[in-house]
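User: Predict structure, ligand copper (II) ion.
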Amino acid sequence: MKIARFVAAAAAILVVAACTQGSQPAAAAPAAPAAPAAPAALGAEHAKPAAPAAATPDAEGKVAIEATADGFTPSRIEVEGGKAVKLVFTRTAEKTCMTAVVFPSLDIEKELPLNTPVEVEVTPEAGGTIAFQCPMGMGKSAVVGLPQA
Ligand SMILES: [Cu+2]
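Assistant: Predicted complex:
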């Protein structure tokens, strides 16, 4: 059961690159999501496939998330299970389909005006995952509730 969260998260992250609006040249994306210099902070003791480093909340319980032409960055946020996290979304790309963020399981949809922070607070259960994505179902990302240590 403990292994499941690693697997689910890795699957969610691989889909991120798929969300563009067709005629989008890749010029504005210097940091390709496919090649993160993963610092291997998590799970280094096990031979898991290298997942991009997950973001964790700051001292105020917030995580800043950028909505770019390619998706949401970071696309995986890890929280202590049962603890609320404030996701602060800022869309920085004018041409992107990430003009809104949707949390299907929570029935939440928030518009993301350009360069305007939009806060969404969620509380994943320990061992649970709350998915978020663009309104078309792309840019799949997740907030993961870690089991209490
Ligand atoms: Cu989309």
